[in-house]
Specification:
Length: 1416
């Protein structure tokens, strides 16, 4: 039998493999529902069909990371939640799995307990004997050349929050990348894996008695981080506490810096923090070396030198100007100490020879640190492209580096000639600072005056014999950290390859991922590419290569080991205990989170204006429904409002506003079972339903549909609040009518039922045997019913009164209107629209002051109502008689005003007194009266916050006096006598994403009727939870009748305005549109004297008609006030298109009325700014005015004159100022007096113009002229002269130069000019203008590139080329730079351009950077 190796390297029969390959497979997709964070993840297993159930459980446990036996598996696509038998040896196919198809499973809790996470058996970070055979190696990022940015330059394995909860198999802990902090993570891991640094940090103790805050203590936060890296059980930990101690904010996490720069800055910060402690000299002891910088005369042998200190050695990858890179670190080190000869013009002045001589200059290492840091200078500057580049050339580095060849002992030992004088030695061998080192451009110098204790190998302090005899092995260094950079010079990613000194194993520390690697992986970081590509080899090489190398001296007497936990100092042991407790607490909190159900909770609050309140219910899965109800009860703040036994939780679908089911008898069931497990999101919500003590809860059964029934009364033309009825989709229309009859107490024989399927889609249900499902019913529905024996039954539905009432009901919206704060006086005195004389006492009432606060405000509105009632009533009666052809010789004062003021025609008004019921009559589309009778026996409607939007209001609808109330609540048209109650569309087509968020709650928050007991013969008292109005709280506008919705602007609708008269009324058809208003008390904080109206209006009404209806309340004619629509954040925009309807408005929109002349057709509101070309602020607002189509510029100037004099104290002659175009801050075309708006000058809404005061009569006479603003630059004085205007007759450059020469006296051949940049006044620093502008462009006309001067207002600088630039001293230049920076910052212009501003890397020792107010 032929045997082949299997995956486990065991030999198995070949036939077995072939048969396994032919065996069908079962695809299992497992959803983990035990954790809210894993519920959206799927585990996929493709198993042979012969796999047993027990093996399936083992595979799922392995893949999910759980302990086998601590979880259950159940079918995911059936209602059967019974778990599969874990111990079964049945195959998957025998257990019901389908081969070749997707089999959905759910991983669920076992016996209500969370699955146990598989524990890590690898031990602590420093344990040895780690098995690397089963590790998934991840060395680092995949190369992606040419990309920019840390986050996009590498591809990392999948990472989620749950992945950091389990420790890596290596036993080491990773660090979470905050955003672009990979460079920080690499350095922190390297320092942690350095035993000497880690142990020294542990020996330092934070003194709690000190004034320093532990949050800002860098050593303490590093200590905490190292403790967590060594003892934590997590896969990765955060570094936010460390960066916070640096004084960094969240923006620093998005700044990538150089890891070598960070190393320097962090060491400096630690040295500052460790002053006066045992660790004060730790950085120098571990990382600081010394070298000698010398110059030796080649004639006399005299040598001058100084000693410098260093923390790292920067090694050049490719010498400047060379096409070949160094091949190894040893080559680069040899080049580093290779001396250069100073000869020729570079000769050195020898103090002994007293002349310039040839000399040798170089560096000589004197002392190597214990930890040797080599920086490979891969970042360079390309002077051909003027960009930073990264050198990806190959550079090898050894695992063990012998540094003895780089100590040049020949000069010190074998050469007997003295080369330095005592004076030189005494003055230079002091370690004094000298920043002029010849190698300062290559080295990162950390000069120090302290030549004290040296723990390293110092060769200049021993005798020559000792130096020669010192064993070579003492200079052997061992590589233990390679910091790798992947990417380009613009950005990339850092990670670290570090060798553990405990087991000699190499690991890749790549942010949160830690994995084992080999020497082959280290060699991959050499850089370079296969084959030689010459000079451009770096461009084709891998962008992933070593950037910093850290070696440790091999010295058994000094090489330390990591401290074990039992050897920790006492303060570290206490810190470990605190961190362990904190981690345990976090773990317990996570367990609670994993077992907590989080679901949306709604409640119709019975007190807070009956508003639908929303919250989030968080309840443990083991809590019962009864306990969850109590939590929801407290969460919704119902204590003291209703008792707990009057509340219950029901399943609710907010999207369809549908009560799915109630939970009778399940009060003791755990919420986890009730909700179907702990999930990140649920497909349903919960509603906390309330009832009164005398009510009973209605059971809601699954499968029922909810129907909100509105009863319509044709006689009173009212629609009752909704009654909730639950029905079944298989019921017939006849059965449904009987259900409604029982709920509403109506007759089923004469009942008409109308279903509102979607917005304004009304369907009469007239087929008795048709089911509700066939009629289009869904989960939540809205119907209107009418049951009477009137003749309206015989009329076609679309011509019936019922249809008209429902149509108007569907188009009526509610608006909040804020009236002007100051009462304008009585209508009879202030309106420009003459009407009948005021009733006795009316004027006096309306002129009352508002000293009574809100009460006064109410009285003022009612006085206006009362005053205007009689006039408008007479006018409306006259119009009705005219329409019916019954007008005789006239009817009082109303007949005399009718023809003059036709804007009141066919517009129903609020201010009409009720008449006798006998005048009520059916209304058709052709004939409708604008006045209607109201029944006198109707009940008083509720106040505004609880009103049911009914017009059947008598003496109290205004909330004040009887007459005013009657006037406010009634009209004289049956069509207009329709209630405005809520109109929420709950239908299958409701789209959440496009629905308007307009609440009807305030207007419909009345208590309403729900059928709570189906067996009852009549209506019962019932719960006010989700019965009548509670859920139908918003209108979702689907479509608008009439014209397309547009923004409110002053632009004309050319081609459509002609169809309307001057007030926006249609000339072809009369409109009978509903309008009703009543005083409204605003909420607190709006100020006294503010008058408000609650207006119910048909949104098909035009703005003109709407304004006319508001006239009695504002107190002036509609032409004397403006309508502003209030948007979010209280932004106001004026509505000016009189012929447009209110179709763009929706429920509860706010409107503000302001006094002032409203725009007429063809008028535009204009803002006028003064142009001051030589002021620091060249743009100053003056006045608002109105320009009209057809008006000339001179006429607009004449209208401006008195405004300027009164409001701005500018007394200007008509010929001494001009108007010109304004484009943001730039002055443009000069408008000539004879120009006509809309013909010669395009004008738009909210237009802005410049007004410019002239020192002389206007020189601009025609459009062919060009007005240019010129400014002379004087380089000899370093200043700019004021602007002067030059008027050109053409676009000729020659003419411009001639005019400038004439203006300044500069000869034509010496005159140079340049166009200004940016926005007016084109400010530029006087230090930059001379060379930065494009002086004297080679063009003959101004309207071509690069000038493009085609319009007035362009800025042109000019100068005399013979005038030389003044020479400034450094002090003068510095002072001038400060002045210019201050000047340009004040004017808002940038001082200089920088394509990329890099934030400097800083660590703040005082807790954080000081905020610069100027930057804010």
């Amino acid at each position: 039998m032929e045997m082949v190796p299997s995956e486990e390297n065991q030999l198995v029969p070949k036939e077995q493999i072939e048969s396994a390959a032919e065996e069908p497979r079962v695809l299992c997709i497992v959803q983990d529902t035990t954790n809210a964070k894993t519920v959206n993840e799927r585990l996929t297993l493709n198993l042979p069909a012969s796999t047993t159930l027990s093996k399936l459980f083992e595979d799922v446990a392995h893949k999910a990371g759980y302990v086998n036996g601590t979880f259950d598996l159940a079918w995911g696509n059936t209602a059967d939640m019974a778990p599969l038998d874990q111990a079964s040896e049945m195959t998957l196919v025998e257990s019901g799995f389908e081969a070749g198809k997707k089999n959905f499973l759910q991983l669920i809790d076992k016996d209500g307990e969370q699955p146990q996470i598989a524990s890590d058996e690898s031990g602590t970070a420093d344990s040895s004997g780690l098995d690397d055979s089963s590790q998934d190696r991840f060395i680092g990022p995949l190369p992606r050349d040419g990309t920019v940015g840390c986050s996009s330059d590498y591809s990392s394995p999948s990472y989620s929050y749950s992945s950091i909860l389990n420790k890596s198999e290596t036993g080491y802990v990773g660090l979470v990348n905050q955003a672009m902090t990979c460079y920080l993570n690499s350095l922190l891991q390297t320092l942690f894996m350095t035993p000497e640094f880690r142990n020294a940090l542990y020996n330092w103790e934070f003194e709690s008695e000190s004034e320093e805050d532990p949050v800002t203590s860098i050593p303490y936060q590093l200590q905490r981080l190292f403790v967590l890296l060594q003892t934590s059980k997590k896969r990765a930990i955060e570094t936010t506490d460390v960066t916070r101690s640096f004084g960094w904010d969240s923006s620093e996490a998005w700044q990538q810096h150089d890891v070598q720069e960070l190393c320097r800055v962090m060491f400096d910060a630690l040295e500052q923090k460790w002053k006066q402690t045992e660790q004060a000299d730790l950085i120098n002891q571990l990382y600081q070396g010394k070298l000698k910088d010398y110059v030796r005369c080649l004639e006399c042998g005299y040598e001058s030198w100084r000693i410098d200190t260093y923390l790292d050695i920067p090694l050049v990858i490719r010498p400047f100007g060379s096409s070949q890179a160094f091949g190894s670190v040893e080559e680069a080190l040899q080049a580093f100490v290779q001396p250069e000869t100073l000869d020729g013009p570079n000769q050195y002045f020898c103090e002994r020879c007293k002349k310039k001589c040839d000399a040798r200059k170089g560096l000589r290492f004197l002392h190597f640190p214990y930890l040797l840091t080599l920086q490979l200078k891969r970042f360079d500057f390309d002077y051909t492209t003027m960009h930073r580049i990264k050198l990806n050339d190959r550079m090898t580095f050894p695992e063990e580096l012998d540094m003895s060849p780089f100590i040049d002992v020949e000069d010190e030992v074998s050469d007997p000639k003295p080369r330095k004088s005592p004076q030189t030695e005494s003055c230079t061998d002091s370690g004094a600072e000298n920043e002029g080192s010849c190698h300062s451009d290559q080295m990162s110098n950390d000069f120090s005056t302290d030549d004290g204790v040296d723990e390293g190998i110092c060769l200049d302090s021993a005798g020559s014999t000792e130096r020669v005899l010192k064993p070579k092995s003492s200079l052997t260094f061992e590589l233990f950290s390679v910091m790798v950079h992947s990417g380009s010079a613009a950005g990339g990613h850092y990670y670290a390859c570090i060798k553990s000194f405990s087991d000699g194993q190499w690991y890749s520390f790549n942010d949160q991922h830690v994995s084992k690697i080999t020497q082959d992986d280290i060699r991959k970081t050499y850089g370079g590419s296969s084959g030689s590509r010459g000079y451009y080899s770096s461009a084709f090489a891998s962008s992933t290569n070593a950037y910093m190398l850290i070696y440790r001296l091999k010295d058994p007497t000094r090489n330390a080991k990591y401290l074990d936990a039992e050897d920790f100092p006492e303060h570290i042991k206490r810190l470990v205990q605190r961190e362990k407790e904190s981690e345990e607490q976090e773990k317990r909190q996570r367990e609670i989170e994993r077992n907590t159900c989080k679901i949306k909770l709604f409640c119709m609050h019975p007190v807070k204006n009956m508003m639908m309140m929303e919250n989030k219910l968080e309840v443990h899965k083991d809590k019962t429904l009864r306990e969850a109800t109590e939590i929801a009860y407290k969460l919704m703040d119902l204590e003291g409002v209703v008792t707990l036994d009057c509340c219950r939780l029901v399943k609710y679908d907010e999207f369809h506003e549908y009560l799915e089911r109630s939970y009778e008898g399940e009060e003791d069931m755990p919420m986890g079972l009730l909700l179907g497990g702990v999930k990140s999101s649920y497909m349903f919500d919960l509603l906390l339903e309330t009832r009164r003590p005398d009510q009973v809860f209605q059971p809601y059964k699954p499968g029922e549909v909810m129907v909100k029934v509105h009863v319509v009364d044709l006689k009173s033309e009212t629609t009752a609040p909704p009654v909730s009825v639950r029905a079944y989709l298989n019921q017939t229309v006849t059965e449904f009518k009987q259900l409604i009859a029982q709920a509403a107490g109506l007759s089923a024989e004469t009942m008409r039922v109308v279903l509102e399927r979607c917005y304004n889609d009304l369907r009469l249900l007239y087929v008795p045997n048709k089911t509700l499902k066939a009629e289009g019913f869904f989960r939540s529905n809205k119907v209107f019913v009418e049951s009477s024996d009137s003749a309206d039954h015989q009329v076609t539905f679309t011509d019936s009164l019922l249809w008209k009432l429902l149509d108007r009901h569907g188009n009526t919206i509610r608006l909040f209107v804020s009236l002007p704060e100051q009462s304008p006086g009585s209508l009879v005195n202030r309106t420009s629209c003459p009407k009948a004389g005021a009733p006795s006492g009316g004027g006096g009432d309306s002129e009352d002051s508002l000293e009574g606060g809100a009460k006064g405000s109410r009285k003022s509105v009612e006085a206006i109502l009362e005053e205007s009632t009689e006039k408008l009533k007479n006018l409306s009666l006259q119009q009705q008689q005219q329409q019916q052809g019954l007008v005789s010789s006239g009817s009082g004062s109303g007949s005399q005003k009718s023809s003059d003021h036709s804007e009141f025609e066919h517009i129903s008004s609020l201010a009409q007194e009720p008449e006798s019921p006998s005048t009520s009559q059916p209304v058709t589309a052709a004939t409708a009266a604008t006045t209607a009778a109201l029944p006198q026996d109707t009940q008083q409607p509720p106040p505004p916050q609880q009103e049911s939007r009914t017009l059947a209001g008598g003496s109290g609808s205004v909330g004040g006096s009887g007459a005013a109330a009657a006037a406010a609540a009634s009209t004289s048209d049956p069509d207009n006598q329709f209630p405005l109650e809520e109109r929420s569309d709950s239908d299958v087509n409701n789209d959440r994403s496009t629905s308007s968020v307009d609440s009807d709650i305030l207007s419909s928050s009345h208590s309403s009727d729900t059928l709570c007991n189906a067996d009852s013969s009549g209506p019962l008292p019932l719960a006010n939870g989700l019965d009548s109005h509670s859920i139908t709280s918003s209108r979702r506008s689907k479509a608008h009748e009439g014209k397309k919705e547009t923004w409110d602007t002053a632009e004309e609708d050319s081609g459509t305005d002609s169809e309307y008269d001057e007030n926006g009324k249609s000339k072809n058809e009369a409109q009978y549109l509903y309008f009703r208003a009543e005083p409204y008390t605003q909420e607190e904080g709006t100020g006294e004297g503010q008058k408000c109206l609650l207006v119910h209006v048909d949104k098909r009404i035009t703005l003109a008609a709407f304004k006319h209806n508001l006239e009695p309340f504002v107190g002036v004619a509609s032409t004397q006030f403006k309508v502003f629509r209030v948007y979010a954040n209280n932004q106001e925009f004026e509505s000016v298109r009189l012929n447009e309807t209110l179709s763009s408005f929706s429920d509860d929109n706010k409107i503000t009325i302001r006094l002032g002349r409203a725009l007429k057709k063809g008028e535009y509101r204009v803002k006028v700014y003064q142009l001051l070309v030589n002021d620091p602020e060249p743009c100053k607002f003056l006045v608002d005015t109105v320009f009209a189509k057809g008006m000339t510029v001179r006429q607009s100037k004449e209208e401006l004159q008195p405004l300027l004099k009164d409001q701005c104290k500018l007394d200007l002659s008509i010929d001494r100022f001009r108007l010109r175009k304004k484009t943001w801050k730039n002055p443009g075309t000069v408008f000539l007096d004879y120009h006509v708006y809309e013909e010669d000058i395009n004008i738009s809404s909210n237009w802005e113009v410049f007004l410019e005061v002239l020192d002389e009569p206007e020189r601009m006479k025609s459009m062919s002229q060009l007005a240019v603003l010129t400014r002379r630059w004087r380089p000899s004085q370093m200043k700019l002269e004021p602007f002067q205007e030059v008027v050109l007759e053409s676009s000729s450059v020659e003419e411009l130069k001639e005019k400038l020469s004439e203006l300044s006296g500069i000869s034509l051949e010496n005159l140079e000019f340049a166009k200004g940049r940016g926005t007016f006044p084109c400010d530029i620093s006087v230090l930059e203008i001379h060379q930065d502008l494009d002086w004297n462009p080679k063009v003959s006309t101004l309207n071509v590139w690069p000038l493009y001067i085609c319009d007035d207002g362009a800025v042109v600088f000019y100068r005399d080329s013979a005038e030389e630039l003044v020479e400034l001293s450094e002090e003068e230049r510095s002072e001038l730079m400060k002045k210019e920076s201050s000047r340009l910052l004040k004017t808002g212009h940038r001082v200089s351009y920088s394509p990329r501003k890099e934030k400097a890397l800083k660590i703040y020792l005082d807790g954080g950077p000081a905020k610069d107010p100027a930057q804010d």
